[in-house]
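Re: that chain you flagged

S.,

Sorry for the slow reply, it's been a week of failed gels. I finally had a moment to sit down with the sequence you sent. For the record, here it is as I used it:
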Amino acid sequence: MKKLLTALILGSLMGTSPVNAEVRNYDGVGEYIMSDFETPDVAKQRAKLYAERNAQEKAGVYIKSYSKSSNFELVADEIETMTSGILKVISVDYKVIPMEEYGGIMYRATVLASIDTDNVDDWISKGVSERESLVQKNLELQRQLDEQQKLIERLKAEAADKKSPEAQEKLKVEFSEADRVFMSNVKLETGDRFVLLNTDEAYERAVACWTEAIELNPNNALAYESRGYYFLYYTRDYPASLSDYTRAIELRPSVADNYFYRGLCYLNQDDIEPARLDFEHALMLSPGMSGAYGELAYIYATKDPLKAIEYADRAIEYNERNWRAWYGRGLALYTMHNYEEALANAQEALNWGCSDAYQLIGDCYGMLGNRAEAEKYWELAKDPPAFG
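Prediction finished late last night. Pasting the structure tokens below so you have them in one place:
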């Protein structure tokens, strides 16, 4: 089977958005009281996180209004995920305030951040599956941050009591571990935001952040997922992506996306059987995953065309823009010598961005006796035009 990047193109759900991009600024304030067991650097980062969340809440009100003007209403979780991902921190100002009554020091962070409507439009244009995946990832990150906050509150309460030296040492270790986990998530979010800049330098910095997040906390599944996605789609380093998604599956075995993306890694290395198993496992966890059905349609296209068509039908039922499903069904119909219907499906795949369809369209025209059209598409297949 030919090697190719099997990117799932779910199409766009574009509304009628304003022509001119707009950048809006928001400020936010966050405070954090540092205990004797914490370092100033971590305390400042915690205050900054609270300040960013404050700014995000303000930006979320605007995002909700803006999305409506684009004929696309976002639910609360999407708004929170979007603002968390696209909020760009312009500046941070810290103040150190002695808190004698608490026996510590309070750090107050004031951030100035911005939201670019171009990034909002990019979110709106994402496919349903991609948006849902980002939302679930953000919810998991927020859950971890909430757990961390509760843990820190408990450790602070214990530290306030008179403890033996042994107990104090144990608390010191627990604070240190909590700080590593927290800073790991800070690096994760920083890396995810770098991706929005869409430059080679930004991607390199993103990978460095995700790698540092993993070094700080080897159990940070979300960092493996972010880095694995980058290796899969941007550098096409399939072995590296495969390794990251395998680790992510060990840490989060109930996440369908991890099996789907690992399946793509296997498929792009022509390792068909484990790819098939991963796509099927993804469907067990998420029965409505159009992408997995589309990949299975492709896998079965030449060896079991009827099964391929069945998978393709399911994929298109969930998302008619799934070019992989149209292509897989076209290939299956071609295998069954139904060249006219194969041609129609291949053309539909091409309409949604499938460059591999040029070859199949040419082959269909060739079998239908239209040599001129066949030659035209075979020539296009050698150097496919860019989409978009």
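What I noticed first: DSSP finds 16 helices and three strands in the chain.

Talk soon,
D.
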